[in-house]
Amino acid sequence: MPPNGNEDVPGPRHVQFLTVAEVATLMRVSKMTVYRLVHSGELPAVRVGKSFRVPEQAVHDYLDNAYFDVG
């Protein structure tokens, strides 16, 4: 057992969070559209005080799944 008494405790994960405004800029949509996606559950977010933070990877996953070929 390690000296601090923690056994098999994973280390902290590095997660980059974006503001709603940053997500809107990245997706080229309005902030209201981002809020709708968050409130509908389509885009996961964490509430920090009165604002939301969206994991950057969640934005990329959403865009990857939303992409379709018009072809």
Automatic annotation (TrEMBL):
Kindly state which keywords UniProt assigns to this record, in alphabetical order. DNA-binding
- Domain (Helix-turn-helix): residue spans on this chain: 17-65
Q: Which InterPro entries match?
A: DNA-bd_dom_put_sf, HTH_17, SinI_DNA-bd
Task: Name the Pfam families on file.
Answer: HTH_17
Highest taxon, organism lineage: Bacteria
The UniProt entry's coiled-coil ranges are none
Q: Name one GO molecular function term.
A: DNA binding
Xref: NCBIfam families: excise
Name of the featured protein: DNA-binding protein
